[in-house]
Design goal:
196 residues; Arc Repressor Mutant, subunit A; Tetracycline Repressor, domain 2; mainly alpha
């Protein structure tokens, strides 16, 4: 067989893997107890295909986690291209809030995985995104200069502590408003704060 004959198989395998990750993300967001067989069925692949890519539940959950973290980090420069810096920061925080809601139900698996270096692996891209957004806001004069990205990320950890009840979204929004008000306080170009 030539190399060219292998390429469609690789492309098909990549497509299957990406499809499984997309379906798994939605399924695990809806219920952290979603079965691997139900995920395979919704992805339109057989259980064997799923297990070839992800030999167990933990491997699938960790792959979804890594993918989501990278997507979250990669969204920061895109948001800055499309929105003023302060709006981009708030939109990114909203994405982080949504991600925190998904992560909440998977906390046990992810907590166990941190001993394998997962936290260190994903921390860099996230802190890089926070740094980029804060610097853009400082340059625009929309937040007070000197905020430490590590401190801001630590404060944002409240998102993982909000119970996922009916009022989750409203409560997260109110708490994010408090964070944004705190970041804007004393900013050189900040307008008076208004409730959203």
């Amino acid at each position: 067989m030539t190399r060219r004959q292998h390429e469609p198989v690789r492309a098909d395998a990549r497509h299957n893997r990406d499809r499984i990750l997309d379906v798994a993300r939605d399924a695990l967001a809806a219920s952290s107890d979603a079965s691997l067989n139900s995920i395979a069925k919704k992805a339109g692949v057989g259980p064997g295909t799923l297990y070839r890519h992800f030999p167990n539940r933990e491997a699938l959950v960790l792959a979804v986690y890594r993918y989501d973290v990278q997507q979250l980090a990669d969204s920061a420069p895109v948001l800055l291209e499309e929105h003023p810096p302060l709006d981009a920061l708030r939109l990114w925080f909203d994405r982080l809030a949504y991600y925190g809601r998904i992560k909440h139900g998977l906390a046990d698996v992810l907590h166990a995985a941190t001993s394998d270096g997962l936290a260190g692996e994903t921390y860099g891209p996230v802190i890089g995104a926070v740094t980029l957004l804060l610097q853009a806001c400082e340059k625009a004069g929309s937040i007070r200069p000197g905020h430490d990205p590590d401190d801001v990320l630590l404060v944002m950890g409240f998102l993982w502590r909000i119970d996922s009840g009916d009022d989750w979204e409203a409560r997260a929004g109110r708490m994010l408003d408090l964070v944004m008000d705190g970041l804007r306080a004393g900013a050189p170009g900040a307008a008076p704060s208004h409730a959203r």
